[in-house]
From TrEMBL:
Its EC number is 2.3.-.-. Pfam families: Acetyltransf_7 (PF13508). CDD domains: NAT_SF. This is GNAT family N-acetyltransferase. Keywords: Acyltransferase, Transferase. Residues 4-139 form the N-acetyltransferase domain. It comes from the Bacteria. One of its GO terms (molecular function) is acyltransferase activity. InterPro entries: Acyl_CoA_acyltransferase, GNAT_dom, NAT_camello-type. PANTHER family: GNAT FAMILY N-ACETYLTRANSFERASE, LD18367P.
Length: 158
């Protein structure tokens, strides 16, 4: 089992732009949501290996706006641990749903998110065409549409 330490980024810490941009190549998009978001970083020993960003949609819903694992550490279950951590934090904070979006071409992410209890909830047609200046390709497929997935949270209210 990995000894992954996931924690809120400190105010005095550098923002992990390399990881953020690996998940969302638009600096403009990052700058639009980061000031209103919370960044969590994940370390193995002293090495930053992953991060995710939570953004409040409203009083009921949080969205994972950005999630990334360093290429050298992919395939080791870190993404799953990040999703579990985000789910726990959202649930503990009393949110009803946690959402995440990914490209129509992000086959591995769609698989992982559904394995972790996220269900398809919508499609933002032409999102990547309308919001990015350069075409983006994954798995040999052009990213055109944002596939939205949502997980209903179970809050312990007893």
């Amino acid at each position: 089992m990995l000894e992954l330490n996931i924690r809120l980024i400190g105010n005095d810490e550098a923002i992990p732009y390399d990881l953020l941009l690996s998940a969302d190549p638009s600096e403009q998009a990052l700058m639009a949501y980061l000031p209103y978001s919370t960044i969590y970083v994940a370390y193995l020993q002293d090495k930053l290996v992953a991060q995710y960003v939570l953004y409040q949609i409203d009083a009921q819903e949080l969205e994972i706006k950005n999630i990334a694992v360093d290429d050298a550490y992919q395939g080791k279950g870190i993404g799953k641990l990040l999703l579990e951590d985000a789910t726990l934090r959202a649930n503990d904070a009393g949110y009803k749903t946690l959402s995440i979006g990914t490209s129509n071409a992000s086959i591995g992410q769609l698989y992982l998110y559904q394995q972790q209890g996220f269900e398809l909830s919508g499609v933002k047609m032409n999102f990547f065409i309308d919001n990015y200046t350069e075409p983006i390709f994954e798995n040999g497929i052009q990213c055109k549409h944002m596939i939205m997935l949502t997980k209903v949270l179970i809050n312990d209210t007893l």
